């Protein structure tokens, strides 16, 4: 099977974790006889430095023509004060909108070997396995009007949702819950926000079409607290854009590190896959980043865009095996003096576990 993948290394640690993910994809291709045609593109601060824009037209066109897009990270403090169109984050928002990826899947589970890696007690987190479904192309990040008037000293962002936007992402959440444990927790702030009142009403309507899935509603502040007090209670967590961005990062602390978390952005066409973590400029070029989020994002690409469920499961198993054998990156140890691996060495251990643990189809 041949698949065309556009690879966007991006900024900071992006190139390092993408290289790690590609090493695993290379092992998958060799084991199962697939062919992945890779095309690299510029995005984010790296693109501004070369082309003057954070999302060059040729990068966008390549992404639209691909079977899937694998992204590292965007973000560079050097462009924090740049015009909006030159800021790395603008490229990511534009790419999501252009590809029509409206549902962001962010799974977060506790690996048995890492039950003590985070700030919460093992007794509290053991068995945690949840997935955020975050609406990705609406809300405050895209609403108009928006603007900043530094002279007058005021700014405005618009929080806007339509019924159609809520319906389509809710359908993704309920369909996913059918494949998992049958629970959707819809997160809103309906006691304050009219957009949340619409959100709650529409999600309730959609739930009627999924009688085999249980629905509960939680205010976002209550959900934030529950994620730390009892993360095991959650299965599929359905959220609007801003709430999902924040809560899924909190889940990184629950499971031990933000570097462990992958994501898949799905919708109308080409899927976009990226680790949840940012560009971490202070770690760039040091080969110390955790590549697992990027590697698992590649596994999600195999599953959701290419229908390669077995290959994706084998990558997941290889990550678990490497962790069970004691492989750790710096973010997964309590003290820097403890033994830990570089980014590239961790990728190598996962490739070794993959090659040792699976049989050809």
Task: Write a concise synopsis of the structure shown.
The protein has twelve helices and twelve strands.
What report would you give on this structure?
There is one protein chain. With 361 residues, the protein is α/β, with parallel strands linked by helices. It has 2 domains: 1-103 and 258-361, Isopropylmalate Dehydrogenase, CATH 3.40.718; 119-255, 3-Layer(aba) Sandwich (Isopropylmalate Dehydrogenase), CATH 3.40.718.10. It contains 12 helices and 12 strands. A 10-stranded mixed beta sheet has the order 2-1-3-12-11-4-5-10-8-9, with helices on both faces. 50% of the residues are buried.
Shape: globular
Detail the poorly predicted runs.
none
Decide which structural class fits the backbone.
alpha/beta
Query: What name goes with the CATH superfamily of the largest domain?
Result: Isopropylmalate Dehydrogenase
Features:
alpha/beta, Isopropylmalate Dehydrogenase, globular, 2 domains, ten-stranded mixed beta sheet
Write the layout of secondary structure elements.
Elements: E1 2-10, H1 14-32, E2 35-40, H2 45-51, H3 57-65, E3 68-73, H4 88-99, E4 101-109, H5 122-125, E5 129-135, E6 147-149, E7 154-156, H6 163-179, E8 183-188, H7 194-207, E9 214-219, H8 220-229, E10 236-239, H9 241-255, E11 264-267, E12 271-273, H10 292-304, H11 309-324, H12 343-357
Parallel strand pairs: 1-2, 1-3, 3-12, 5-10, 8-9, 8-10
Antiparallel strand pairs: 4-5, 4-11, 6-7, 11-12
């Amino acid at each position: 099977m041949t698949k065309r993948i556009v690879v966007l290394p991006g900024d900071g640690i992006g190139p390092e974790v993408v290289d790690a993910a590609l090493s695993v994809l290379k092992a998958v291709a060799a084991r199962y006889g697939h062919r992945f045609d890779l095309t690299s593109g510029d995005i984010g601060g790296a693109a501004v430095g070369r082309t003057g824009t954070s999302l060059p037209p040729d990068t966008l066109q390549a992404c639209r023509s691909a079977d899937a897009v694998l992204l590292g990270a965007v973000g560079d403090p050097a462009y924090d004060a740049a015009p909006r169109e030159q800021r790395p984050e603008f490229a990511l928002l534009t790419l999501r909108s252009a590809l029509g990826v409206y549902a962001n899947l962010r799974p977060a589970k506790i690996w048995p070997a890492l039950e003590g890696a985070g700030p919460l007690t093992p007794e509290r987190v053991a068995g945690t396995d949840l997935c955020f479904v975050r609406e990705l192309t609406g809300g405050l990040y895209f609403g108009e009007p928006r603007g900043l008037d530094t002279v007058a000293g005021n700014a405005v962002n618009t929080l806007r949702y339509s019924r159609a936007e809520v319906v389509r992402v809710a359908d993704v959440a309920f369909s996913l819950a059918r494949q998992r444990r049958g629970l959707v927790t819809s997160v809103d702030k309906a006691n304050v926000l009219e957009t949340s009142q619409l959100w709650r009403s529409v999600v309730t309507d959609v739930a009627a079409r999924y009688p085999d899935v249980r629905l509960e509603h939680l205010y976002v502040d209550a959900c934030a607290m529950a994620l730390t007090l009892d993360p095991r209670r959650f299965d599929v967590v359905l959220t609007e854009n801003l709430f999902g961005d924040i809560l899924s990062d909190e889940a990184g602390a629950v499971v031990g590190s933000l570097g462990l978390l992958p994501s898949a952005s799905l919708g109308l066409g080409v899927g976009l896959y990226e680790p949840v973590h940012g560009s971490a400029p202070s770690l760039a070029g040091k080969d110390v980043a955790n590549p697992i989020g990027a590697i698992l994002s590649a596994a999600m690409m195999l599953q959701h865009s290419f229908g390669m469920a077995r290959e994706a499961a084998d990558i997941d198993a290889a990550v678990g095996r490497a962790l069970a054998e004691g492989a750790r990156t710096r973010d997964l140890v309590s003290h820097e003096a403890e033994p830990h691996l570089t980014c590239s060495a961790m990728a190598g251990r996962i490739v070794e576990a993959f090659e040792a643990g699976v049989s050809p189809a």
